[in-house]
Amino acid sequence: MFDKYRVVSVHELLQEYIETGRIKIDKSVHEELTTIHDPCNYGRKGEKAFGHGFFEEPRWITQQCCENYVEMYPNRMNNYCCGAGGGAWALPYEQERIYYGRVKAQQIMDTKAKMVVAPCHNCRDQIMKSLTKDFDLDIETKYLWELVADSLVVEPWSEGEIKKANELRDAQYERDEIDLDQEW
Questions:
Q1: Confidence of residue 39 (pLDDT cuts 50, 70, 90)
Q2: Exposed, middle or buried, 140 (CB in 10 Å: 0-12/13-18/19+)?
Q3: pLDDT category, 122, cuts 50, 70, 90?
Q4: Which residues contact 49 (CB under 8 A, 6 or more apart)?
Q5: Peptide bond between residue 74 and the one before it cis (omega within 30 degrees of 0)
Q6: Distance between CA atoms of 120 and 135, rounded to whole angstroms?
Q7: Is residue 146 within 8 Å of 64, Cβ to Cβ?
Q8: Assigned CATH for 28-164
Q9: HSE, side-chain direction, 13 A CA sphere, residue 141
Q10: Which residues of 43-55 are buried (b: 16+ CB within 10 A; e: fewer)?
Q11: Percent of the chain scoring above 70 in pLDDT
């Protein structure tokens, strides 16, 4: 039943919306130096399991939303795990999680960034709720979608913009074979 539907990641969807003008972004909202954490699941694991790791899409999106961007080193396939992977964030292994996260904390400090974008919920929680406190990091941590939401330009649309948005929506539904009237 579901195999005819194309699965689209949040990375692809946000990039498509920005590229097509479906949403407008104001990067001056985020002037602080910003870096991105490459989550193991979206990056290395995605590359190995599906042949595509989401490395470039979140970087491009982040750079559309932020005035100043810096890379962590190493990055992409070689980036360090934050320490919360494999469910460690939800398990009672706090000392182990902090120990493994120390490398990520140092990596963040080395960038001198004031904001870290963490697309994964476990990574975001580890960086924001643990590493920030345990390693005295003076940073803000945001989800990728949260960064986009905070960068949105929200203004009334003209009739032409509404028509274009409806056409884009309809084309997306057709592309993805979505029928809203279909009963499951």
A1: confident
A2: middle
A3: confident
A4: none
A5: yes
A6: 20
A7: no
A8: 3.40.50
A9: 22
A10: bbebeeeeeebbb
A11: 93
